Amino acid sequence: MTLAPYAGYFSDFQWPWYMPAVNDYLALAESGGFRSVNVWGEKADRYFPDIDTMIRWIDQPNLVPLLPFIPEAKRSGFRDLVIQGMIEETLQPDGSCFETFRRINLYGVASGNGF
User: Fold this and answer.
1) Are 37 and 29 within 8 A, CB to CB?
2) What is the pLDDT of residues 66-105, one digit of tens each?
3) Cis link prior to 20 (omega < 30° from 0)?
4) Residue 97 pairs with which residues in a beta bridge?
5) Calpha distance 67→78 (Å, rounded)
6) Single pTM value for the model
7) Distance CA 88, CA 59 (A)
8) DSSP state of 77
9) Distance between CA atoms of residues 105 and 22, nearest Å
């Protein structure tokens, strides 16, 4: 998104997914009326068995919110650049691809006010 010739297309881009930090989730749950709230992060790193599986993951959901910002004639080049970079970063000697994932878990008890 920051590389030429694509950076200009993303000047007004806002990420469509809400991805707060663990402490922010805790505050949000408590302010929403949950009690006995426990929020924790975990490593959920993943191996994709091959490059094709990694490419399907890049296409869905990763590129979905980005492509509408790019003129149709340049989308293929952008996609290829992203895929090339991801494969270079994640490819393992055995042909699998390793990607780091972080997951946030939340447990809370509804306070009885309509949840």
Assistant:
1) yes
2) 999 999 999 999 999 999 999 999 999 999 999 999 899 9
3) no
4) 48, 91
5) 8
6) 0.76
7) 16
8) H
9) 9
